[in-house]
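Section 5: illustrative case.
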């Protein structure tokens, strides 16, 4: 029997909490374990309650939603932000939230956010390992769900369907407007997955977050050109140039055992 997703609702507005609770009650496979009015209350609740997903507001008394996320344990719950403010999205995804839902929250949008949270939880439980087989062609969502359980593949949602990719074939991924451009040896795909979603699914020994807008497969890098800012421009074997931020460059130097 599949255990229900345990969800904690956190919002300082009673009306907003009641709306979320009503929407959650209509979704199968979800169990609400409580509601909180502040970030501090969330942190206290997590000390005694097993929680899979927190639906978290940003503007709350005391700790903000983003400040609360920063204090969560590394193995803590997956966070979905539910807010009326669009201007915190970049910071939120940099902190690893599974989704960013605008208020008033609609039933379909909440289901999609919980689906992304479920994917994040599944990847934590057992992330797939890379394979040397070539990329597979686009398949239906139902076919992808069945195939991905038996194959080591990255299931990438695109507007043309779900594409199953060999992770080693992915050169890099970069944010392009509202979508993420995933560049592979066989072509480029646009996906509405977030960069954080992709990073969770890709092998950590191969991929590095080199910029708030980019993930890079280190096996595809042929040359690093230093910048005056302290960062790099990484040139891939596919002829692409990917910017590496100064902060990421420090980590990359340690990882590659480079001097300076």
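Designed sequence:
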């Amino acid at each position: 029997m599949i255990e229900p997703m345990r969800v904690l609702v956190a919002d300082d507005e009673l009306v907003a909490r009641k709306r979320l609770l009503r929407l959650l009650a209509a979704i199968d496979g979800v169990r609400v374990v409580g509601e909180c009015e502040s970030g501090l209350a969330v942190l206290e609740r997590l000390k005694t309650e097993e929680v899979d997903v927190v639906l978290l507001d940003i503007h709350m008394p005391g700790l903000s939603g983003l400040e609360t996320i920063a204090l969560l344990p590394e193995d803590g719950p997956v966070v979905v932000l539910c807010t009326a403010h669009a201007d915190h999205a970049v910071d939120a995804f940099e902190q690893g939230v599974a989704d960013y839902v605008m208020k008033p929250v609609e039933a379909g949008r909440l289901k999609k956010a919980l689906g992304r949270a479920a994917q994040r939880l599944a990847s934590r439980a057992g992330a797939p390992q890379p394979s040397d087989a070539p990329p597979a062609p686009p398949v239906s969502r139902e076919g992808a769900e069945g195939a991905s359980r038996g194959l080591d593949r990255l299931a990438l949602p695109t507007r043309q369907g779900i594409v199953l990719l060999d992770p080693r074939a992915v050169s890099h991924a970069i944010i392009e407007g509202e979508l993420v451009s995933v560049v592979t040896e066989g072509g480029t795909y646009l996906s509405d997955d977030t960069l954080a979603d992709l990073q969770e699914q890709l092998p950590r020994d191969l991929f590095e977050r080199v910029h708030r807008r980019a993930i890079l497969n280190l096996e595809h890098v042929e040359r690093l050109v230093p910048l005056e800012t302290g960062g790099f421009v990484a040139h891939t074997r596919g002829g692409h140039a990917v910017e590496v931020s100064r902060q990421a460059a420090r980590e990359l130097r340690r990882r590659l055992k480079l001097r300076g």
